[in-house]
What does this fold into?
Amino acid sequence: MRWFAYNGDADGICSMVIRGLVHGIEGERVTGVKRDIELLERVDAKPGDEVIVMDISLARNHDRAKHLADSGASITWFDHHLQGEPIPEITSHIDTSANVCTALLVSRVLGSGEDWAMVALHGDGLGAHSSRDDLAELGELLNYNGYGFSLADLHFHPDELMVACLEAGSPEVFMQSETFFRLRSGFAEDIAHCDSIEIVDGIHMLPDEPWARRVVGVYAHRLNRGGGGPHVIAIDRGETLQISVRGENGIGELCAKFGGGGRETAGGIDTLPKGEIPALMNEISTRR
Ligand SMILES: [Mn+2]
It folds into this structure.
C-alpha cells in the first residue's frame, strides 16, 4: 500500500500534481489546512508500505517518521523546511535553500512538471525565483486556499483542489476553470478587508474571523515582498496569538525558539501566549 502526506498549501498541492502527472496518485492521501503539519500521525503504514511525504517538516514529524521507518515502511521525503536530526533510513530530498520550494525539488527528481513548480514558488512567496510571472496569481490563490484554522474556513478541501489541478493537467487550463474563478472572487473579498488591519507594537494585528484566517498568509507574503522585515503578523485569539513571520533568512529557526517552525523566509508559531510578545519582538528587533 502507498501513502501520501502532503501540505495543503500551494507548494504541497503542486508537488502532488507533479508526482500525479508522472506516476498517478493512487494510494491513501493525507493532507489538511496548511497549519496542520503533523500529518504523519494520520499515516498508518504497515511494514512494506511506501510513504511519500511532501512539503512538511521532518523536524516536526521526527518521532513518528522514525517509528514508521523502524517498523519497516519505506519513506521518501521531499521538503524545504527545517529538517532537525536526519533519519538515515529515509530517502530524503531535503534542501532548505531560500530559493527552492518542495515542488521544484520534486520536479527536478522526476524531470517533469516545471510549470507547476513555478506556480509553487509564487505560492511560497518565492516569486523572485520563478521564471513564470504569468503564474503568480495562481500560486497566490492556491496558497490562499490552504490557510484557515480548520477545513471549515477553506473554500476547497486541499485534496479536492489538488485533484482539480491534476485533472486540468496544466496551470493554463486550470486558470480557465470554475474552481479557479471561485478562488479569485473569494480572495478579492477577503483581501479588501486588509485595509483595516492595525499595527500594534510592531505587529500587524488581525481579528479572529474567517476572512482573516484565510488571507493572513498571502497578506504576510505581500508585506515581505516590500522588504524591511522581519514582519510579524498575528491573529488575535484572546489569550494567545497565532503568529506568522516573514523575512529574508533564519525565520524558521527564529520561530522554533517559541515552539513554532518553518523555513528560511517564512515561519509561524501556532499558539504564542501574549506574555511572550516582548521576548518575540526582542528577537525580531535584533534582526531588523
Ligand atoms: Mn513549501
Q: What stands out?
A: The chain is about 40% helix and 20% strand. Residues 31 and 159 are 7 Å apart (CA to CA). The pocket of manganese (II) ion is lined by residues 11, 55, 80, 101-102, 124 (CB under 6 Å).
